[in-house]
């Protein structure tokens, strides 16, 4: 039986492909795919505007090919995880 961490990692991969396979290159996220992912998978009250999402995508697109590959996506999730950890520390 997979551990909680293994399940979480699998989810990161599955969610990436759920969106990356919608159009164009099946193994990268286009701007539209990334926007859909952000809007559907991040449910915090503070929704990012389309403009914010575009800006974020530009920052994350290290090789500037206008798509997010898995490496760029996971770097982003790493940053989100660090942010969550910092927020959590404030309550400990
Ligand atoms: Ca794609
Ligand atoms: Ca890229």
Characterize the structure shown.
By secondary structure, this protein is mainly alpha-helical. The protein has helices at 4-20, 31-41, 50-60, 70-89. The protein has one domain (4-89): Recoverin, domain 1. Helices cover 64% and strands 0% of the residues. Helix 1 crosses helix 2 and helix 2 packs across helix 3. The radius of gyration is 14 Å and the shape is globular. The relative contact order is 0.11. The model has no long low-confidence stretch (mean pLDDT 94). The protein binds calcium ion (CA) (2 copies).
Number of strands: 0
Outline type = globular
Enumerate the distinct ligands.
calcium ion
Order of helices and strands: HHHH
Portion of residues in beta strands equals under 5%
Helix content: 55-70%
Instruction: Report, as a whole number of angstroms, the end-to-end distance.
Output: 31 Å
Radius of gyration: 14 Å
Class of secondary structure makeup: mainly alpha
The major β-sheet equals: none
CATH architect. name: Orthogonal Bundle
Task: Tell me the name of the CATH homologous superfamily.
Answer: EF-hand
CATH topology: Recoverin, domain 1
Stretches where pLDDT is under 50 for at least 5 consecutive residues are: none
């Amino acid at each position: 039986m997979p551990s909680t961490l293994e399940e979480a990692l699998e989810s990161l991969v599955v969610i990436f492909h759920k969106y990356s396979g919608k159009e164009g290159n099946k193994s990268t996220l286009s701007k539209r795919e990334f926007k859909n992912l952000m809007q559907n998978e991040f449910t915090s009250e503070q929704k990012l505007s389309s403009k914010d999402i575009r800006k974020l995508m530009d920052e994350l697109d290290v090789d500037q090919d206008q798509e997010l590959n898995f490496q760029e996506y996971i770097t982003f999730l790493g940053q989100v995880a660090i942010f969550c950890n910092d927020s959590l520390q404030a309550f400990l």
